[in-house]
Fold Metal ABC transporter substrate-binding protein.
Amino acid sequence: MKKIFVLSGLSLFLLSACGSNNEEAKGGNEGNIGEGLYVTASFSVLADMTEAVLGERGEVDYIVPIGEEPHEYEPVPSDFRKVNESDVFYTNGLNLEEWLERIMDNAADTEIIEISEGVEPIPLEGEEAPDPHAWLSPKNAEYYIDNITADLSERDPEGAEIFEENAENYKQEIEDLSAEIEEGTAEIEEDQRMIIVSENAFKYFAEDFGFDSDGIWEMNSHEEGTSGQINRIIDVIQEREVPAVFVESTVDPRYMETVADNSGVEIAGEVYTDAIGEEGSEAASYIDMMRHNAETFIEGLSGNEAE
Ligand SMILES: [Zn+2]
């Protein structure tokens, strides 16, 4: 992820050094500065995927900082500026960015593209609205990548061949990862294939790899960690004899600590759902975060060290 920071810092420097001619700032292929596209994504996972396809032909930025969750984020003025200066703004859609209207009100000219298009939505428990966490399925990631590739190619036709090649390589890496997860998780016993985290965000992952999933609460923008929710999940853990639970990098761990203490199971590690990991961490890219999650589940649920 280093490049994202370096490039966005550079683009800010260039912008301030060259004044604020908006056409130039918008990039495209005409201006002297900002050669290539400038894309902003709503959160870090989408930015990482975009960077993999865009490669050297532009810059990628994102709005929600790593460590924060993208459901109820409150955009600040510099976010409006980023989106305004971008050639395009990539969102997940599927009910994720509840703050999108504020961006639209303040950055009306920039086109917004939902890059989850094509995904078969899984509804939230007891609701019709979709669960937004489709990126946690490697199969769905391919829709994201195809949508990114199509959009970038339209905006920068000269780069189309490169985008296509980058996307093919990236999708191959994701297919390899998927096979690796399939193989690694195969050692988890049938009755222990249950992922329990704070926010019930692993539905798409669970569907791909044959798990059940649950959470203390259904989605971060809903009510979080009421005693009713905590008691319910303790019952589920005890009934299913779940060997371990997990906590997310973007959620306050205290709720899950209460659950673990009261149900007598261990928190077997931290997983990444709504953000990639910090630079230098074991989950600093989409692929690394997915691999880390799978290894954490394998260790926690099978009692074996993941290789
Ligand atoms: Zn979430």
